[in-house]
Specification:
single chain; about 210 residues; alpha+beta; Heat Shock Protein 90; five-stranded mixed sheet; 5 helices; globular; transferase; phosphorelay sensor kinase activity; Bact_2-comp_sensor_kinase
Length: about 210
């Protein structure tokens, strides 16, 4: 009886992990397509040097994401590095300001979060929030401990309206919600929650319970 339960538990875990990888595999083409759209936008506005730089830097970023795509989780320091590169590239096109705040007490190399879990949320804040504001657009991302012991909180803020006009139902966000649901089945003791707050802009909070 015990062996059957253990086997059933392992089979369920394998099934969830396969589901996570399928969803993650859908995210990579979505990420690439949107980056190519940004490059096209730079070319169409005759910003050829910026387009060439974007293409060069995005190629390096894409290699990193492809190398990590086989893994469900990635260290927080690597995720922050990739997201900072992505934000810098999008600033070439949209000229918004960014502010990245990281708590000094976080051990970034020891904390793992789902690979590319932040990218669709940051993309949404840029595309539907700050992109239309130009150099008045403000994107802020903070990485800090939560109020509950062991909680990691990542907050993505923009001073636009990134969740108006149905933006919350975009494809990338849909995949993110699917991934969170699957991870919560895999790691019930480490549940992830997503909260939205609209006040003087938009804030999305990712709360990782018992992750640090």
């Amino acid at each position: 009886m015990l062996k059957r339960r253990i086997r059933a538990s392992k089979e369920k875990q394998t099934e969830i992990e396969q589901s996570l990888r399928r969803v993650q595999a859908q995210l990579n083409p979505h990420f690439t397509f949107n980056a190519l759209s940004s490059i096209q936008g730079l070319i169409n506005t005759n910003q050829i040097n910026d387009a060439n730089y974007y293409l060069h830097e995005f190629s390096a970023l894409l290699r990193q994401t492809l190398n990590r795509s086989q893994y469900i989780f990635n260290t927080l320091d690597k995720e922050i590095e990739m997201m900072n590169t992505y934000i810098g590239l999008e600033q070439l096109r949209f000229s918004f300001l960014s502010d990245i705040q990281i708590s000094k007490t976080l051990n970034l190399r020891d904390i793992e979060i789902p690979t590319l879990i932040l990218q669709p949320l940051i993309e949404n804040a840029i595309k539907h929030g700050v992109s239309v504001l130009g150099d008045k657009g403000q994107l802020q991302i903070s990485y800090k401990e939560g109020q509950q012991p062991g909680a990691l909180v990542i907050i993505i803020r923009d001073n636009g309206n990134s969740f108006d006009d149905g933006a919350a139902y975009g494809y990338g966000l849909k995949l993110t919600l699917e991934r969170i649901a699957a991870i919560n089945k895999l790691k019930r003791e480490k549940a992830i929650s997503l909260e939205f707050n609209k006040y003087a802009g938009t804030a999305i909070s990712l709360i990782f319970n018992n992750w640090i």
